[in-house]
Amino acid sequence: VHLFGANFAVYNLARNLKYQNIKFVVNPIFYSRRNPKIIRAISRIDLLTRRVWQGVWWQWGFTRDICNWSEMVLPNTIAEGELLRQSYDLPIAKIRVLYNGVSAHFLNSDPAPFIEKYGLKDFILHVGHLGPARKNVLNLVRALEKIDHPTVLIDRVLQTGETPEILSAIRKNPNILFIEGLPNTSEMLASAYAASSVFVLPSQFETPGRAALEAALAGAKIVITPHGGTMEYFGDYATYVNPADVSDIQCGIETALQAPKFPDLPQHIAQHFSWDRIAMDTKAVYNAVLSKTDSK
Which residue segments constitute the domains of the chain, with CATH numbers given? Predict the structure, then answer.
């Protein structure tokens, strides 16, 4: 069994698998700006409070238990793996980095359909979710107020406390075209990536942001958060911005607009992060777990 997430949502499932002696691996999808020593201390407090106050649990305790129960822990980045190791004293042999992947159909996408339908090209693009604080779209639209350049937001709207302010800012900005969510398989989405100049994802953190991989594969320049392991995917091919600083987001976008594209970025993404490559790596993990189980 392969679990995605090491949190409350999958905790009961993981515990049942453990009780039934069913082997599983887990992608924890774990990130924190906290020092690992603090996470480790809270994890120990969690063990104590469970004994003293039944029903009192800490989120980091769920992650600890699920990782400990699993046969192998599969972080999306080296940085995530090191954070997990230091926070929960996991053995190095139990951790294997399994990078996130991207569909090859975004490579060599045709910009023409989007340009013909909307009359826009070489624009700023954001694809994702509008509303969740982690996605930081509010700071993005604040930065866009200071940039006189066509922008396209292709976002699914989730109702949160920030949503009304974000939508209001979008309506007031004549440079922004808002398109509510396109399916990942949409050829129009692939065309939007190809027609854009700069793709921006200034989230609080990303591991690494599937949409950014898709945009890079289609040839867009990337402006992205440095938090969550994005540098392991994009290296020197991206512009990194402080998600808490609206001026830095603005500056990063403007810098990228003036810069040339990286002609070898799509091949870099295709070579290292295609689903075919990730599938082979995943299969190797499964085989390693099965062979270890068979030898017992």
Answer: 2-100+274-294 (3.40.50.2000), 104-272 (3.40.50.2000)
